[in-house]
């Protein structure tokens, strides 16, 4: 139980879940290391990355004694949820409401971040036992949606994902989000020239923007 609380704290502390959705295993591992060096404490490896389970196993072993939460994203069924947990994932994320994933995760005390897009889905996500609501795709809703929906649903811990940048993160946090999901701004920072120090720098920039907005 304490482990789960510690893991939730890792997300709360930095306010960022880094979503690694890349086309190569090598790149995903390099991006993860560079982002951790930049201060990221919650890594979501999406199941669409080649050998995602192998990456999760490697990273969860590597960062076992560090302050880093390693999880799996794009979980669409209970089988994948369990496979990810056996590989070492301590956080499971789905783009949509997935009660099967939440059930499996809760059985193992893994953190759950489950997708929702409407007030009904946000409500159902909490009702299904998710820890955090992933507002997805957030860019088509905007921060005002969060402000409006958390008036009747103030208990909803919302993490918007899709299109969040250091430039707009303040609006999301001020609207009432507890943190943000971030992908390409950090993970694709090295794609032009393969210089992963750009990923570290983008992570630092993003973390500073979150800290300044709180
Ligand atoms: C994803 O699932 O890949 C996220 O939506 C990432 O969004 P972003 O790249 O716009 O941050």
TrEMBL record:
<comment type="pathway">
    <text>Carbohydrate acid metabolism.</text>
</comment>
<keyword id="KW-0456">Lyase</keyword>
<keyword id="KW-0119">Carbohydrate metabolism</keyword>
<dbReference type="InterPro" id="IPR031338">
    <property type="entry name" value="KDPG/KHG_AS_2"/>
</dbReference>
<comment type="subunit">
    <text>Homotrimer.</text>
</comment>
<comment type="similarity">
    <text>Belongs to the KHG/KDPG aldolase family.</text>
</comment>
<dbReference type="GO" id="GO:0008675">
    <property type="term" value="F:2-dehydro-3-deoxy-phosphogluconate aldolase activity"/>
</dbReference>
<dbReference type="GO" id="GO:0106009">
    <property type="term" value="F:(4S)-4-hydroxy-2-oxoglutarate aldolase activity"/>
</dbReference>
<protein>
    <submittedName>
        <fullName>2-dehydro-3-deoxyphosphogluconate aldolase/(4S)-4-hydroxy-2-oxoglutarate aldolase</fullName>
        <ecNumber>4.1.2.14</ecNumber>
        <ecNumber>4.1.3.42</ecNumber>
    </submittedName>
</protein>
<dbReference type="InterPro" id="IPR013785">
    <property type="entry name" value="Aldolase_TIM"/>
</dbReference>
<dbReference type="InterPro" id="IPR000887">
    <property type="entry name" value="Aldlse_KDPG_KHG"/>
</dbReference>
<dbReference type="Pfam" id="PF01081">
    <property type="entry name" value="Aldolase"/>
</dbReference>
């Amino acid at each position: 139980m304490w482990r789960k609380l510690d893991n939730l704290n890792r997300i709360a502390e930095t306010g960022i879940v880094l979503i690694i959705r890349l086309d190569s295993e090598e790149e995903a591992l390099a991006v993860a290391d560079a982002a951790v060096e930049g201060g990221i404490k919650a890594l979501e490896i999406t199941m669409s990355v080649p050998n995602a389970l192998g990456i999760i196993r490697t990273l969860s072993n590597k960062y076992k004694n560090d302050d880093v939460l390693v999880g799996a994203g794009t979980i669409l069924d209970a089988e994948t949820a369990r496979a990810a947990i056996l590989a070492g994932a301590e956080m499971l994320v789905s783009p949509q409401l997935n009660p099967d994933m939440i059930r499996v995760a809760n059985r193992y005390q893994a953190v759950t971040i489950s997708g929702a897009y409407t007030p009904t889905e946000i409500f159902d996500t909490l009702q299904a036992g998710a820890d955090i609501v992933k507002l997805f795709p957030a860019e088509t809703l905007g921060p005002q949606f969060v402000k409006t929906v958390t008036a009747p649903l103030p208990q909803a811990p919302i993490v918007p994902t899709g299109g969040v940048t250091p430039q707009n993160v303040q609006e999301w946090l001020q609207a009432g989000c507890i943190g943000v999901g971030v992908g390409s701004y950090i993970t694709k920072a090295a794609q032009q020239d393969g210089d992963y120090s750009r990923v570290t720098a983008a992570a630092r920039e993003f973390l500073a923007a979150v800290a300044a907005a709180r």
